[in-house]
Amino acid sequence: MMPLSTHYAACSWCQVRQYWWAHLPRPLEQELVSRLLHLHFRDSKTKVSGDALQLMVEFLRIFVVEAAVRGVRQAQAEGAVLVDVDQLEKVLPQLLLDF
Fold it and tell me: pTM to 2 decimals?
């Protein structure tokens, strides 16, 4: 759950995305993404090139930031103080269609 601040309400959504992008912790390292990908490969010998792995890491970072921003927007529209799973569930269908 992420507490909302009045700072977010005063910013344009572009600035909020930039803030999230700059302050998002970097847990999506290449090793983690590589392990996640390999968990879903049918053939255990499948390899991922370094460029494809970097692309996937950046894609997942963008996806997470966009989900967080949309969750904040949904919570504000509902007058909620915290972003909860309910808000993320509401924005997920459109988010998946956009990606």
Answer: 0.66
Mean pLDDT across the chain: 80
**What one-character DSSP code corresponds to residue 11?**
S
Evaluate whether 69 touches 13 at the Cβ level (below 8 Å): yes
User: Mind listing the pLDDT tens digit for each residue in 50-76?
Assistant: 899 989 988 888 898 899 899 999 999
Domains defined for the chain, CATH in brackets: 2-98 (1.10.20)
Q: Which residue pairs from 72-77 have beta carbons closer than 8 angstroms and sit at least 24 positions apart in sequence?
A: 72/2, 72/4, 72/8, 72/16, 73/13, 75/4, 76/4, 76/8, 76/9
8 Å CB contact between 84 and 39 = no
